[in-house]
């Protein structure tokens, strides 16, 4: 058989002879399927449009596109002779199914060779080739006899049906009627919905296997059985479905989960393709999951329907952490999801050298591979954290303060202390997030008196459960917390951190980008500048003294804190102009120096990280505030991407838009929304704003995906493969897209993956 296949220029394929074997990729008998609507298998087999082979076991057959489109009919000047006779090209016109292989000098039946599904006794026209030219045209022999065989007639009907369906582009899969197919789809849809619910709510699928009952206790089985009890139609479907085609196995679960995640990724890619402006930005971050695998999250940002959107494109396992490897990984992910890299506008990563390196980092290599400069934005969230960590490293008093906070958290987190302490729980310090520094400072400040009382009780050994080491530590913490320096740092740092907190909050939202973050950062910076005054310092000092009114340093006047003298001291008349009657307050002087040292350092770090020599920030701020007079002021913006020139409005349009804003009293915060509603009139101005809104400034969305992944990889799921964990992370993270998946599209994808036992279409 391989010889005649090679003669037609075709590759040989190995076929599975056991077509009735029970597996997920087999076929289900028509007889069992016909029971769903009362149609007998004999009636189906006798249908004029017979789509099944005439064999002892009637099976549903799905037409598949053949490797050739028409019979092989070479017209030769002369054909080889056998016993003085030879093949004639005129027979092609008489028999439309006839084809000829000149290499072996034999003819075949094209439709039988293409559409036959079972073994047949007549092998000449299918396998070996027909060469009896003498009897080729006789009535009951040769070509005419073959035309009358049942095998040929069945294949002929398949061929005719295939040509009709191919013409109207309609799929032909089975002879089972629409009622049976709809029941199959309803059953698979029910399985899909159970998996969709569990995946969307981050719930586990499997449970323990009860050996005595031979049953599983997982949520998937339990929820499906509950659905089965409530749904009578589903019960009717299940009764007629073979045991080996119920689609409840873990393999089918994984496949459905993978299709869901694939549909979500496809929708993200479509949104990028159909975005308001042909640009997108990428944010990339990485972490090790609980199974010690390096997960790289790739998020894209674009503007669709007037709304800046950040969506998770994919989570990939990284086997190397070099810049070259990560760059290729990013480009491969974009290409695999059919995202056009020519539309890449900017990139946003953390400050790791492998990512931000201006020569060998990912941001530099990505520009080299795409052959153009791509602006890099250092994640604002990471920069806020670096400001706090730099402050801790450079100011020794601040470092000691947080060391004390760590000890306080350790003491108040013990089981013995929890029963006696009634205040809010403290938070541990995190190396990755500065918000831990804010939370522990805020809790200590708001529960200062309660904490002091609890420590004093421990110090006086009122808690019998505490050991001597803990009591000694409590004595030391009481002395530290009552000191002026600790209280002053507590109030000063809380004031600074609470001022920075709004910037961190806005950067956590997925719809806020560089254009909306920059004004917040400027307002935070100006607020911190306003703190640099003696009045604000005195307010801070007074508030820290109010924490402990009975302390000796509670008053600004040291005379109030000294004992009365037994005799009246008379000043020297020669030194009357030089006598100081009030204490200069050595501790207060140190506090003032520390206050301005901390504040100046924070302002310097803010200025260096956010506002120094950044033309990109300035031009985006100028665009979103509409503070430019003509397009000449946008030269730096135009040079960012070759296609940005297509979204630059004319000077006349700019004037019209400004006049419209003035006449209609449109506030600056409503510029973007107003332009979206008027994009048909001011199209390029809207496109300019949308392009500015596309720039990202934070990889917080990437970090949010890692939080989702950590919730999914529980100790009971530690053996889960990385691919499944990634898909289970994408599904709940993009829950809105999951709910919009077209179930019919899903069923078609599921049906096309393998030769399913249950045909759906």
TrEMBL record:
<feature type="domain" description="TTF-type">
    <location>
        <begin position="83"/>
        <end position="171"/>
    </location>
</feature>
<dbReference type="InterPro" id="IPR006580">
    <property type="entry name" value="Znf_TTF"/>
</dbReference>
<dbReference type="InterPro" id="IPR012337">
    <property type="entry name" value="RNaseH-like_sf"/>
</dbReference>
<protein>
    <recommendedName>
        <fullName>TTF-type domain-containing protein</fullName>
    </recommendedName>
</protein>
<dbReference type="Pfam" id="PF14291">
    <property type="entry name" value="DUF4371"/>
</dbReference>
<dbReference type="InterPro" id="IPR025398">
    <property type="entry name" value="DUF4371"/>
</dbReference>
């Amino acid at each position: 058989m391989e010889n005649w296949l090679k003669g037609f220029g075709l590759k040989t394929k190995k076929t599975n002879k056991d077509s009735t074997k029970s597996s997920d990729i087999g076929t289900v008998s028509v007889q069992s399927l016909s029971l769903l609507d009362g149609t007998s298998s004999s009636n189906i087999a006798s249908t004029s449009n017979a789509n099944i082979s005439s064999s002892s076991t009637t099976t549903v057959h799905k037409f598949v596109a053949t490797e050739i489109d028409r019979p092989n009919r070479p017209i030769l000047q002369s054909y080889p002779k056998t016993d003085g006779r030879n093949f004639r090209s005129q027979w092609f016109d008489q028999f439309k199914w006839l084809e000829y292989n000149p290499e072996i000098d034999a003819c075949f039946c094209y439709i039988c060779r293409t559409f036959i599904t079972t073994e047949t006794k007549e092998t000449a026209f299918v396998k070996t080739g027909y060469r009896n030219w003498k009897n080729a045209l006789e009535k009951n022999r040769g070509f005419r006899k073959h035309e009358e065989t049942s095998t040929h007639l069945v294949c002929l009907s398949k061929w005719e049906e295939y040509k009709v369906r191919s013409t109207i582009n309609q799929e032909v899969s089975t002879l089972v009627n629409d009622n049976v197919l709809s029941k199959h789809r309803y059953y698979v849809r029910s399985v899909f919905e159970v998996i969709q619910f569990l995946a969307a709510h981050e719930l586990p699928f499997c449970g323990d296997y009860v050996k005595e009952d031979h049953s599983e206790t997982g949520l998937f089985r339990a929820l499906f059985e509950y659905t089965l009890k409530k749904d009578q139609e589903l019960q009717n479907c299940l009764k007629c479905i073979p045991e080996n085609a119920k689609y409840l196995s873990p393999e089918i679960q994984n496949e459905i989960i993978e299709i869901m995640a694939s549909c979500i990724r496809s929708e993200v890619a479509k949104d990028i393709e159909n975005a308001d402006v042909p640009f997108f930005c990428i944010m990339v971050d990485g972490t090790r999951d609980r199974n010690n695998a390096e997960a790289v999250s790739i998020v894209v940002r674009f503007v669709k329907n007037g709304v800046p959107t950040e969506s998770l494109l994919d989570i990939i396992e990284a086997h190397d952490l070099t810049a070259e490897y990560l760059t290729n990984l990013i480009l491969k992910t974009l290409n695999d999801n059919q995202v056009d890299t020519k539309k890449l506008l900017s990139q946003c990563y953390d400050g790791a050298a492998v990512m931000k390196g201006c020569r060998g980092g990912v941001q530099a290599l990505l520009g080299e591979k795409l052959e153009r400069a791509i602006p890099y934005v250092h994640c604002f969230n990471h920069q806020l954290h670096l400001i706090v960590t730099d402050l801790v490293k450079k100011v020794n008093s601040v470092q000691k303060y947080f060391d004390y906070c760590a000890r306080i958290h350790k003491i108040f987190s013990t089981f013995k202390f929890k029963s006696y302490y009634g205040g809010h729980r403290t938070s541990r310090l995190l190396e990755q997030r500065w918000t831990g520094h804010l939370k522990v400072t805020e809790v200590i400040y708001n529960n200062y008196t309660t904490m002091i009382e609890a420590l004093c009780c421990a110090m006086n050994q009122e808690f019998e459960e505490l050991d001597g080491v803990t009591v000694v530590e409590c004595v030391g913490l009481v002395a530290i917390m009552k000191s002026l320096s600790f209280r002053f740092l507590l109030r000063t740092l809380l004031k600074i951190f609470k001022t920075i907190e709004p910037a961190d909050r806005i950067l956590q939202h997925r719809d806020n980008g560089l254009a909306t973050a920059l004004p917040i950062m400027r307002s935070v910076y100006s607020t911190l500048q306003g703190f640099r005054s003696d009045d604000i310092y005195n307010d801070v000092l007074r508030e820290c003294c109010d924490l402990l009114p009975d302390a000796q340093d509670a008053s600004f006047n040291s005379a109030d804190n000294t004992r009365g003298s037994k005799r009246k001291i008379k000043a020297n008349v020669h030194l009357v102009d030089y006598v100081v009657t009030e204490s200069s307050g050595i501790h207060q002087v140190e506090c003032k120096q520390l206050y301005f040292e901390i504040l100046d350092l924070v302002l310097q770090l803010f200025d260096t990280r956010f506002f120094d020599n950044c033309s990109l920030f300035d031009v985006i701020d100028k665009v979103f505030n509409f503070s430019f007079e003509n397009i000449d002021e946008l030269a730096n913006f135009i040079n960012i991407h070759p296609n940005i020139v297509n979204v630059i409005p004319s000077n006349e349009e700019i004037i019209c838009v400004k006049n419209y804003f003035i006449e209609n009293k449109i506030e600056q915060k409503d510029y973007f929304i107003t332009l979206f509603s008027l994009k048909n009139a001011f199209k390029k101005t809207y496109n300019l704003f949308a392009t500015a809104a596309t720039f990202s400034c934070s990889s917080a969305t990437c970090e949010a995906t890692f939080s989702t992944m950590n919730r999914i990889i529980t100790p009971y799921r530690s053996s889960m493969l990385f691919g499944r964990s990634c898909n289970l992370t994408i599904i709940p993270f993009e829950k809105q897209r999951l709910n919009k998946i077209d179930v019919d599209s899903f069923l078609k994808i599921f049906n096309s993956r393998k030769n399913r036992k249950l045909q759906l279409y």
